[in-house]
């Protein structure tokens, strides 16, 4: 008999370590999410036999508010169905203002096993350092692009989304990406990288240019008659801050 499942609750972006779950069936593993669009990020810290069942220590990170079923994010390593699992609801709440960027999905870390804690810690540090190096490289490249007055990757991607909106309705993930691009660009321009996300919007609105961009973004994405104009470059210019030399 499967023991009772404890209530699983957390906030967006904050990993939780619930009490171990004892579940039936063959070994479970997180469902692959190459596009990183899932509502939950699941990591199996450890799995061990528990009689005829298996005992799992999990780390769960909620990426979207709401009540989600953990079963949708698990598969069996041998490919057999998971229909014998009991309901596993996870309630995720948000403490951030609406419209802010979606939190990043944590990097995957192997299940604790032959390598022990040292191997896991070493792998985690290596992944973190690689991600940091990539971030620094991307920031330097973007700053070089802005200094010489050419289109930035953010402008290129935002132009793609505007052009897509002329052909069809944007998906929720695409709308969230557009918001993230605009908020991140103005946050960097105004030097608000260290501002608490809960007060970021009010901080941006203190600048007249950023306030106009936020209002235009809302009109484009959410107003019934916002639409996508024929002038794609014109809308992108309204949403993003000017290039570095134009601001001087």
Describe the protein in words.
The structure is a single chain. The protein is α+β, with helices and mostly antiparallel strands and 248 residues long. It has two domains: 8-95, Sandwich (Immunoglobulin-like); 119-239, no CATH class. It contains six helices and eight strands. The chain has helices at 116-147, 153-167, 172-189, 200-204, 208-221, 232-239, and strands at 8-11, 21-23, 28-30, 40-50, 53-62, 66-69, 74-76, 89-93. It has a three-stranded mixed β-sheet with strand order 1-8-6, with no helix packed on it. Strands 2-5-4 form a three-stranded antiparallel β-sheet, with no helix packed on it. Strands 3-7 form a two-stranded antiparallel sheet. Helix 3 runs antiparallel to helix 5 (208-221). The N and C termini lie far apart (70 Å). The model is unreliable at 144-150 and 244-248 (pLDDT under 50).
